[in-house]
Amino acid sequence: MRERPRTKKAAEPLQEPAEEARNLAHKLGLDPYDVNYWVVDYDEMNELIAYNGFQERYPHWRWGMQYDRQQKQGQYTGGKAFEIVINDDPSHAFLQESNAVADQKAVITHVEAHSDFFAKNRWYRMFADQLDAAAMLERHARRIEEYMSDPDIEREAVEQWIDSVLCLEDNIDQHEPFKRQFERRDDAEDDDIPDDELAEKLDEMDLSDEVKRQVFDEEWMDEQADAGELDEPEMDVLAFLRDHGKAYDEESQKAEEMTEWQKEILEMLRAESYYFAAQKLTKVMNEGWAAYWESMMMGEEAFAGDDEFLSYADHQARVLNSPGLNPYQLGKELWEYIENTENRREVCRKLLRTEGVTWRNFHDTVDFEEVQDLLAPDPRIDSIDPENLDELDDLAPEKVDEEMLEAAKNGEIDLEKYPWKVLTYRGLAERHFSLCKRQHRGFLRSVSQQDLEQYARYIVDDARYGSVEEAVADVDYTTGWEKMREVRASNNDVTFLDSFLTQEFVTDNQYFTYEFSQTTGDYRVASTDYEDVKKKLMLQFTNFGKPTIAVYDGNYNNRNELLLGHHYNGVMLDVEQAKRTLERVFDLWGRPVNLKTIVKEVDDRDAEIARRRDREPEPEEVGKLLRYDGEQFTMEDLDWTEVEDIAATEVDYDTKPEDWLA
């Protein structure tokens, strides 16, 4: 970024908060990448947001549209840009210079948690490990600019090609690492023989069968003949189009081999889609993780000063209570639920090993008020008193950082500002044990008999505690945080929701589903059952919330037509939008394209009867084939046997593909 006196001045007060936020993050058990913080002005922040956080992107109208939208959001709706962070190692975060120090500190703590997530989540490692994203995107920007500046290539043609590819940017295999199969060859000649023209070319050469067998071995011939056949659906639509697609030439009205620049741009944009896939796959987890630890640091550890707290609380409330499906709120609530559930399991299992306590008599025997008092953190940990630091000497050594304590006694640490410095990870875990927080005090008591029976079943240690006091004294306060880190390492949003969105969570947080009523013409609450809530939420995150489309045949009906299939999970395609997309796919295939899907149809008579009886009509699911030949669309019915492979099963309705959730 350009170095200006005012941005340098704005950065100076943030040096200490950035360093101390990193120190606190480590104390709390986080292990983030190093983070480079950049202070930018209002316009630069809007540009970075438009560019997805990067300083250079390829020329295209979409960036200007996103910039204009961001500016209008700030000017007319009161929207405020706080931060943007790039998941590289080291990470890069941008702070808007006009924001208050309280906001900057909130952003810094938020970014440290994001950076920890980048470093430890397997989906980020799968898609972006050892990848210098900024360098890759810069190379792509320069290469596409070269093509646009080439006098032999029409700039409009490049832009239209990019538009067509971007319509399919999410149609990649989101559960496999990126595999680069096409590499640009500067001096290569276009010597590939199109698959569908292979027989014609060989016939023109007038070769004998013996020569054909000598030059083109049988295995190679079979591979070319079967190029369009698929043993199973190809999820990476962009890769299939790159390998087998053609470009439709409007002048000749024929499919032509893709030029080098067309194939290279397709592959570059595909590579970018894979890079950004990790962000889309973990939006709820990642934002919830960052919101949780930001709240812990800024609020519970008072990283926000007394004069900053109200401003921070307002900032946090606006983020967590923004309308619509809010990944910050949903994610934070789920992380808190995981922490509470694991801490409750730890406490209950200790109590179930107490003399006289069983899973059957648990609620009648255990004095929950007594247990809450016993679980409360040691007063010396709960409130660090700079005037009585000698009291910390008697604490267990694993809870106190002896080196920092000695420095504090020598006046080298400002404990009024940073009391956490004299505690270890275990000390901080006790200080912030979730079941002792006011909002969670009823969570232990609400444990179900079913959970208690399960806890008891897996207790393998025969040793018993003589009293509740002994049992609680043996509780591991780090259990909840350790479980959170374990979940953070291995999940994405779909598995996260599937594993932890329970009836208890749905009830406690008042989640419900709503649907459009054909009878009344408005929206109504449909269900508060957690299975229904889970299904609806998972539909929002499976395949980034977009329809899942795969390639089923590259030689449909033996006519070199493309057959795509919509993985139907109870939600119909928007047919008009599907038509617009097929027009773009046609540009990349060069020949007619087909899409099979399933639609719900309601008979007018059944709809009228249902309306009179104040109930919803029962739709019939029907197979359809949408075809585009470059000029017109046709829609025809398909026999159910032809769409069984895309029809929802019980597993599909829950959006839990067995092959990657096993």
TrEMBL record:
At the top level, the lineage of the source is Archaea
Where does the SpoVR-like C-terminal domain lie? 547-598
Q: Which residues form the SpoVR protein-like N-terminal domain?
A: 12-344, 478-545
A Pfam family name for this chain? SpoVR
InterPro entries reported for this sequence: Spore_V_R (IPR007390), SpoVR-like_C (IPR057008), SpoVR_N (IPR056174)
Q: Which PANTHER family match?
A: STAGE V SPORULATION PROTEIN R
- Name of the protein: SpoVR family protein
Species this protein is from: Halorussus gelatinilyticus
What is the taxonomic lineage of the source species?
Archaea, Methanobacteriati, Methanobacteriota, Stenosarchaea group, Halobacteria
